[in-house]
Design goal:
Blueprint (H helix, E strand, L loop, with lengths): L6 H24 L4 H12 L7 H6 L4 E6 L7 H10 L2 E4 L5 H4 L9 H12 L3 E9 L5 H4 L3 H18 L6 E6 L22 H12 L4 E6 L8 H16 L5 E4 L2 E2 L9 H9 L4 E9 L4 H13 L3 E6 L25 H11 L12 E3 L5 E3 L12 E3 L10 E2 L5 E3 L3 E5 L8 E5 L8 E3 L5 E3 L5 E4 L10 E4 L9 E3 L1
Parallel strand pairs: 1-2, 1-9, 2-3, 3-4, 4-5, 5-6, 6-8, 7-8, 8-9
Antiparallel strand pairs: 10-21, 11-12, 13-14, 14-15, 15-16, 17-18, 19-20
Helix pairs in contact: 1-2, 8-9, 12-13
The site of (3S,4R)-3-hydroxy-2-oxopiperidin-4-yl beta-D-xylopyranoside has 6 residues, from loops.
């Protein structure tokens, strides 16, 4: 999780730099000085991301991006190629459930669970455990139990499975789907519920003792919309557990969104409110009917906006792997190609936290009193900067990094599209080039390291919409800037 700083993307950025240099050289021999913008335009069409896989992009903010893995598909190389490339966390889709791990009472079987676990760990991924106590996918022997006999069987099951995976599982879904759908806010009727209302806390206390290293999660669906009774009931339970010291560390939001249970933008409020109770939150089984790109991006941004959101897991790799293939709800087509939703999620992850870093702030023009602004809060590479009324929004929040970049949105850099007077100054994905490095001088100038020219409000303009360019340093008021 921690080592996201260097590997493949760095190589890629260097390659981009080299290509840019080559393009400058070739074009420079033919026609004069327009080469850098041309090279940038080519890069821009390629939509270069700061990180090129979901897992690496999520790791930039310390999060993971996972998938459900089905052991039966691990010999499909098209499947494992995508799964291994894109994801850094794995949940066994069925293999660690009660029927799989304890098919006969007291006889545990970890063959399929271990197949998924070993594949994950051998490929450098962390593992979420799913799930220890649930009304569904119980083996036949458990379905027919009741009362104290069932209660004891639940306890023995938790102990048996958690002992096998002790110290190896980052998060365990201890209890799954214990609340009823609809407006009642009641517990779901089940054989486990009928053993007594305290079955959930008993499960959590048993789990803590069995593997103190694992984060213990309660996991459910139809609990993403803050206004729903089921959400409120789960909230009341977690609040009560925290108050009474019942060991719970996290809440999993399955996030199976569809026409009957659509995504609502108040999901972020839900995540924030649970986090405020002192638990981590995670999106554990994400799939969205029809896979609309915007909704996928919004869910991703919701997690990024909440510091205690640990990561996102999608419930399968390709649409054809989904438990609901008729919904085509995932990020990859059956042929392995990336869907628009994939790109939307990757871009959102590369946009980083939507809360600007603490050391960021506006850059204000001395002559205009207006701020350095990305028009329309755009994120497209090549968007030229302008002056606009200072408004403290994210498209005016700049961080001067140790490398000398001026970053906005976490991953876009103030970028000179040339080296001559009048060269456009734009945003562009940060890649380490000298055209993205700036010296802030004591006289208030911002000097491009590559060009030696100054950040300049064109034609000494002061109005909203005045474009920003490079120009020979004059120390005029259209070239002096203050940072607050
Ligand atoms: C589903 C699996 O994807 C299917 O293969 C299986 O037949 C049924 O279970 N909520 C959960 C998951 O917590 O375990 C479920 O997984 C989907 C709904």
């Amino acid at each position: 999780m921690a080592s996201h700083a260097l590997p493949p993307p760095t190589v890629r950025r260097k390659t981009v730099g080299l290509l840019t240099a080559l393009a400058v050289g070739v074009l420079g021999a033919v026609a004069a000085p327009v080469a850098p913008p041309t090279a940038h335009a080519a890069e821009s069409r390629a939509e270069i991301a700061a990180e090129s896989t979901l897992g690496a992009a999520a790791a930039q903010s310390g999060r993971y991006f996972g998938t459900a893995i089905a052991s039966g598909r691990l010999n499909d190389s098209a499947y494992t190629t995508i799964a291994n490339r894109e994801f850094n966390s794995v949940t066994a889709e069925n293999e660690m459930k009660i029927d799989a791990t304890e098919p006969q009472r007291g006889q545990f079987n970890f063959t399929a669970g271990d197949r998924v676990y070993n594949w994950a760990v051998q490929n450098g991924k962390q593992v979420r455990g799913h799930t220890l106590a649930w009304h569904s996918q119980q083996p036949g022997w458990m379905q027919s139990l009741s009362g104290s006999n069932l209660r004891q069987a639940m306890i023995d099951h938790i102990k048996g499975v958690m002992a096998h995976y002790k110290g190896k599982i980052v998060q365990w879904d201890v209890v799954n789907e214990a609340f009823a759908d609809g407006s009642s806010g009641a517990r779901r009727d089940s054989n486990l519920q009928r053993t007594g209302n305290d079955w959930i806390e008993v499960a959590f206390r048993t789990a803590r003792a069995a593997d103190p290293a694992a984060k213990l999660c309660y996991n459910d669906y139809n609990v993403e919309n803050w206004t729903w009774a089921k959400t409120q009931a789960m909230y009341a339970m977690v609040k009560d557990f925290k108050q009474r010291g019942v060991p719970i560390d996290c809440v999993g939001f399955q996030s199976h969104f569809n026409s009957g249970s659509p995504y609502d933008s108040n999901f972020r409020t839900t995540l924030q409110n649970f986090a405020a109770l002192g638990v981590d939150v995670a999106i554990t089984e994400l799939d969205i009917q029809g896979a609309p790109a915007t909704t996928y991006a919004n869910v991703t941004k919701d997690c990024l906006a909440v510091p205690r959101c640990l990561g996102i897991t999608v419930w399968g790799v390709r649409d054809t792997d989904s438990w609901r293939p008729e919904h085509s709800p995932l990020l990859f087509n059956g042929d392995g190609s990336k869907k628009p939703a994939y790109t939307a999620v990757l871009n959102a992850l590369n946009g980083g936290s939507t809360t600007p870093p603490a050391d960021s702030g506006p850059i204000k023009g001395v002559g205009s009193g207006r701020c350095l602004d990305v028009p329309g809060a755009g994120t497209t590479d090549g968007t030229q900067l302008q002056l606009w009324d200072c408004n403290n929004r994210t498209n005016q929040q700049w961080t001067h990094t140790a490398a000398g970049e001026l970053r906005v949105y976490g991953n876009k850099c103030l970028d000179a599209a040339g080296t001559g007077n009048g060269a456009k100054v734009q945003i562009y994905g940060c890649w380490g080039g000298d055209n993205q490095k700036w010296r802030l001088t004591s006289d208030g100038s911002i000097v491009g390291v590559q060009s030696g020219l100054c950040l300049d409000a064109a034609a000494s303009g002061t109005a909203n919409g005045t474009l920003i360019q490079l120009y020979s340093c004059s120390n005029g008021s259209n070239q002096r800037w203050t940072r607050t």
